[in-house]
Write a structure and sequence with these properties.
The chain is mostly beta strands. About 5% of the residues lie in helices and about 45% in strands. The strands form 4 sheets. The protein has an 8-stranded antiparallel β-sheet with strand order 3-4-5-6-7-15-20-19, with no helix packed on it. The chain has an 8-stranded antiparallel β-sheet with strand order 10-11-12-13-22-18-17-16. Strands 9-8-14-21 form a 4-stranded antiparallel β-sheet, with no helix packed on it. It is globular and about 55 Å long.
Length: about 325
């Protein structure tokens, strides 16, 4: 093991690397009308999928630069989990989360209206989307303008995804953004509280470690508690170090976010309506901003703190 001091995205950090610096990559773009992917040779580093027939867009796979897949698309226990994706749970009493039946449709519809993808020769990308939330065959109640910026992987295989969504109550009524109540509340469940940007990790990551910005570990120290960031780390099936980190921006509603964590899946999310719903008045808007790091190495807490500080000033 060697310790490497390097500047990542303007932040001085300490990374513990197993072996030497990553081999010279062979990056290229693979694009269709329904997806964009960064390739390293014949391996997918990341792919964003935005077929309008899907309704909800998603990243899958999210991988290390050498193709070790860290996410899970439509696992049998929750077929509506789409690797890294965004979904509200309840809007004005309709469920936009679970998808049932042969058509895999939720009660409420999430509809992709438009997508624009811009890729650079330096292998960074920007994805801009407009989405509409509405009951079946009825007018829109909530609109979203989503901007996703993906960085080029650095020399150690780390890259990040900046995710920003602007939501507007665009119909003729207020919008109540809700979830399954948590335990101890009327109608509450022990598994209640989830909604929003989520990551369902690959089956091979079961047994990985979880750490938050307060230094707490595991479900008992993280689930239902506020934190600036949440970090998952462990070994890939080939025995290499890898990690996923999600960061909550200070401009977000109810910052620092309460986190939902289920290590057994594994699944985690900054659950902005964990404790209580939020009502968005007709015509009003709010913005959610997150950063997700994907790594091919281990990283220390002090480095994650420094990265969050840099992100928080963005």
């Amino acid at each position: 093991m060697i310790v490497v001091k390097t500047s990542v995205y303007g932040v001085l950090i300490g990374i513990v690397m197993a072996g030497a610096v990553m081999a010279e990559p062979d990056y290229s773009w693979k694009k269709t009308d329904e997806s964009v992917a960064l390739m390293n040779g014949d391996k997918v580093v990341w792919q964003h999928n935005h077929a309008k027939a899907e309704g909800k867009s998603y990243f899958h796979p999210l991988s290390t630069v050498d193709g070790e897949v860290l996410t899970w698309l439509r696992p049998k226990d929750h077929t509506w989990h789409r690797s890294m994706w965004f979904s509200w749970k309840m809007l004005n009493g309709l469920n936009y989360w679970e998808e049932r039946g042969k058509e895999r449709l939720s009660q409420g519809r999430t509809e992709i209206i438009g997508v624009k993808v811009k890729t650079s020769r330096k292998h960074s990308a920007t994805i801009k989307m407009t989405l509409s939330y509405h009951p079946p065959e009825k007018p829109e109640v909530l609109s979203e303008v989503r901007t996703i910026a993906v960085s080029r992987p650095d020399e150690h295989g780390a890259y990040y995804i900046d995710w920003q969504s602007v939501f507007t109550a665009s119909g003729d009524v207020d919008v109540k953004i809700d979830r399954t109540p948590i335990g101890g509340q009327p109608g509450g469940r022990g598994w209640g509280g989830y909604a929003g940007l989520s990551i369902r990790m690959a089956e091979a990551t079961r047994g990985w470690s979880f750490l938050n910005s307060d230094g707490n570990k595991g479900k008992g120290g993280i689930h239902g508690k506020s934190a600036l960031w949440l970090h998952a780390s462990g070994k890939t099936p080939s025995g290499k170090d890898a990690g996923l980190t999600m960061m909550d921006h200070p401009s977000n509603m109810r910052h620092p976010s309460i986190w939902y964590l289920e290590p057994g899946m594994p699944y985690f999310s900054p659950a902005v309506v964990f404790k209580e719903p939020h009502t968005l008045k007709k015509g009003e808007s709010f913005t959610l901003t997150y950063r997700v790091f994907v790594r091919s190495c281990t990283v220390e807490k002090e480095s994650l703190d420094a990265e969050w500080k840099q992100f928080s000033e963005k």
